[in-house]
């Protein structure tokens, strides 16, 4: 990632923690929830790897092609479920955003054919708006709501089965994606 090294390392730590939780969540759920957690773990791992400061690890020329291929395949895998709606649409947008960032980062600093180092400004702006709305919406969903009965829930959930932690992970990955787009 281009930009301050401290910001890159903080993103690596945030995404790494998110990956760890998504892997825990994968072990404790099944079916569609397990696939969603796996997709989020892949996204978090890719974001953590992409956020490593360039001064520490400069990818070879073909490294960005690997990123684009992996997340292009993830986008294709998510396409059919995304057309049915739900959270898969966000996974599709996330995978395509990772492909876009890999292509833009690969092209480096030069300007050519109307594209700047920041990619297509309109597309970058649209993705910034999307992730800003996503982060704000996710943050509001995490706000506590008083229960109608007035009492606390007595059920104890495992770490992987806590919906608020899954939402917090999605929020943190949205914040990380927003930060990476800003640094683009």
Q: What attributes characterize this protein structure?
A:
single chain, 70% helix, mainly alpha, 184 residues
Description of the molecule:
This protein has helices at 5-28, 31-51, 63-83, 88-107, 121-142, 163-183. With 184 residues, it is mainly alpha-helical. It has one domain (5-109, 116-144, 160-183). α2 (31-51) packs parallel to α6, α3 (63-83) packs antiparallel against α4 and α5 (121-142) packs antiparallel against α6 (163-183). The chain is globular, with a radius of gyration of 18 Å.
Give, in order, the helices and strands: HHHHHH
How far from one another are the termini?
8 Å
Give the biggest sheet.
none
State the helical fraction: over 70%
Q: How would you describe the shape?
A: globular
């Amino acid at each position: 990632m281009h930009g301050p090294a401290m910001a890159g390392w903080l993103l690596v730590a945030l995404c790494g923690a998110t990956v760890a939780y998504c892997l825990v969540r994968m072990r404790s759920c099944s079916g569609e929830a397990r696939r969603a957690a796996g997709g989020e773990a892949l996204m978090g791992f890719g974001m953590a790897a992409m956020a490593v400061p360039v001064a520490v690890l400069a990818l070879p020329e073909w490294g960005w092609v690997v990123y684009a291929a992996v997340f292009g395949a993830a986008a294709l895998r998510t396409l059919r479920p995304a057309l049915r709606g739900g959270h898969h649409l966000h996974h599709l947008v996330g995978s395509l955003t990772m492909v876009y960032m890999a292509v833009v980062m690969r092209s480096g600093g030069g300007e050519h054919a109307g594209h700047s180092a920041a990619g297509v400004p309109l597309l970058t702006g649209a993705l910034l708006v999307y992730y800003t709305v996503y982060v704000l919406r996710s943050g509001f969903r995490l706000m506590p709501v008083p229960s109608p009965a007035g009492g606390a829930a007595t059920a104890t959930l495992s770490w992987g089965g806590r919906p608020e932690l899954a939402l917090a992970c999605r929020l943190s990955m949205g914040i990380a994606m927003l930060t990476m787009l800003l640094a683009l």
